[in-house]
Amino acid sequence: MTAQGAVLFGRYAFPPNQLGFCGPDDHTALFQYVAEQRPDRGLVELERRFEGAYPYLCLIAGANRLQDPFDSRVVDAYWIGNGLLENVKAQDFYQSLEDRFRPRMLADQFRWMATKLEQGARPHHNFHVFEVYVRAGLMRNERAVAAIPPMDSCRISWGRVSDVDGGTLVVERPELEMREGKLVLSEPRPKRLSWQIDGLGFVRAVRPGDVVSVHWNWACDILDADGLRRLQASTKRYLRLANQTI
Predict the structure, then answer these.
(1) Rounded (10°) CA dihedral 176, 218, 50, 129
(2) Burial of 103 by CB count in 10 Å (0-12 exposed, 13-18 middle, 19+ buried)?
(3) Tell me, what DSSP letter sits at residue 49?
């Protein structure tokens, strides 16, 4: 077990888990493990029960001949984006998607999504949000605008801290929106995020000017310049692919 990677995974997995969207029921235990940076076999067992994310980690690890799906490089690849994703073969990614999601999609939806793999789609969380999460092709429906807010919350995004107010942060964050029939990011707008519960959180000594990664209105980590660049590039890549079938 790579302790650092297990804690890193939990930083991003906790926010939707707290809301009851994915993973095991015991979000309190997950939070305590991660906030206290106390990784052990119990944390890994909790994290293996994230049926959406964990198979992606296994796919990335296998493609890079890494034994531990919670290797910090694998976790970083899935949530933020790094070079390990490029070693995942399109056919292997296709097989994973087919096994897991084809039964839940209409044939046309799955076919549209599968066309993205030869164009560079890889198992990044934001690909999952823009394609699988909305059942590829949903955006053709005029009511699909209702899906924009949850997509915006579910994608891994970034925001620059402008104020620290107790257990919340105010950040300047680009928002996902539909413009002229395409998904785009707005100019940064003020947004209030949670970053602590009873004085415990995942980021330490956050200050105005820091850039934090965001998942479901929660500050997950502080991004350095390289991490921000990689996340921005991944987001741009998967928005471009998503817009091909809108």
Answers:
(1) 0
(2) exposed
(3) T
Q: Is the pTM of this model over 0.90?
A: yes
Give the pLDDT confidence of 52-98 residue by residue, as tens digits.
999 999 999 999 999 999 999 999 999 999 999 999 999 999 999 99
Q: Is residue 38 part of a domain?
A: yes
| 162 within a domain of the structure (yes/no) | yes
CA atoms within 13 A on the CB side of 91: 0
Domain hosting 53: range is 3-105
d(CA 221, CA 64): 25
Asked if 57 contacts 72 with a C-beta cutoff of 8 angstroms, the reply is no
One domain for residues 84 and 168: no
Residues 83 and 174 placed together within one structural domain of the fold:
no
Q: Phi/psi at 146 (nearest 5 deg)?
A: -65, -20
